[in-house]
Amino acid sequence: MTRWATASPSTSIRSSSDGRLGSDTVSDLSEQLASFIRHAVDARMVRVEEMRRLTGGASRETWSFDATIEHGDGRTETLPLVLQRDTRGAPKQMSRALEFRLLQAAHERGVPTPEPFLLGDASLGGVQTDGPPAEFFVVQRLDGETLPGRLLRDERYADARRALPAQLGRALAQIHAMPIDAPGLDALQRPPDGVPAAAWSLERHEQIYRAIALEPHPAFELAFRWLKERADLTPRPPLPRVERGSSAGGRTRTRATRVFPAGRPRGERGSGDGGGDGGRARTGEDAAASVGANTPWGSGAGGRARTGEEGGGRNDRVLVHGDFRMGNVLFDAGGMRAVLDWELAHIGDPAEDLAWVMVRSWRFGGGQPVGGIGTREEFFAAYEAAGGAPVDPAWVRFWEVFGNLRWGIICLSQARTYLDGHSTSVELASIGRRTAETEWELLSLMDAPGARSTGPGGGDA
User: Fold this and answer.
1) 241 in helix, strand or coil?
2) How far is it, in rounded angstroms, from Cα 431 to Cα 229?
3) Tens of pLDDT along 63-102?
4) For the whole model, what pTM was predicted?
5) By residue range, what is the domain housing residue 87?
């Protein structure tokens, strides 16, 4: 959960006090990073400058820097880049190598993402003495902002507030169109064959909850019961495999492969790629055709889900970003620039992503359900117009309840990381106190009009 906004330059990143991995000084890290890039791109010389820590991120370090590269043919270029690497003690949801491959696949499909540059090795973890070296990768850096409070309240982002709901819908349709069997992505977590994604997700999170809860949480127990009563828990045959081909022509790039061109504008905050048209996601015929080939998982009109006899059942086997929300979207005055933080991606139900951005905590005080800035109707309409399968609002509401429960369990997990002594991060400890917010929201959602019949094809949105 990284907020890619510029912090004050750090003078030291020693890891003994805050549980984060790092070299003894910024200059040490710069030298190690320069050496890695020089060998990776076979350059004559690399100079790393303007190294500064970016704020936010409980599970990783994020650094902004400029790399001046002198190539063997005498050509010199300066690239604006971002380094991301793991932190010690924080829960690790996905390896940096898998996340890097996922970013490559998304970027090649036209999804607005940070443009990948290099996948790292153990060269930046040499000073660590109590565990494996930190993994890292390097991506392009672009201008932008991620702080939702500024989006909601700063007048310079008034146009962005109006544009983002539709841009979010289009970007999500592109993500859900990505081939789930692309080379290198077979390690993504996914439901077993024949098991509905809703049942799989509920079981996974209930197991986590039972393992980490230190005290009773009656609201969570009620939410698990409520969701189980409304989920489609009946095992089904595996969906037929659809051969869509590789998004990269069957190629899987290695760590020393450079994948974006020189001459990018220098940025000050964050990282991402808006596809060259002000950050708006490209839809295109390829994305629309690919998403449109998905089996519809809802009727889109009247909130009645289509049954297996009518439409082959919901397609609950798509690429799910897993953390699609404000705070993980890079934006500027014109709207979206990039979707960030892919470490929770998995294969599952598209409604999970549609609902996650509407979880109360991700509205950041805004008055609208979609990220605090948009209505459900305009968000769903943009998603469908970009090729997304027809939306069943009642089924999305089911996943909204699940999303609030999931966030509450994540809060407990962050607190346990601190309480068990794996990290001294105050941020992790403070997140644990937000569990009560999710309990209150769960009770409100389950008691809302129409909630008693909410489920696939029933109830009111």
Assistant:
1) coil
2) 30
3) 999 999 999 999 999 999 999 987 655 556 788 889 999 9
4) 0.76
5) 26-140
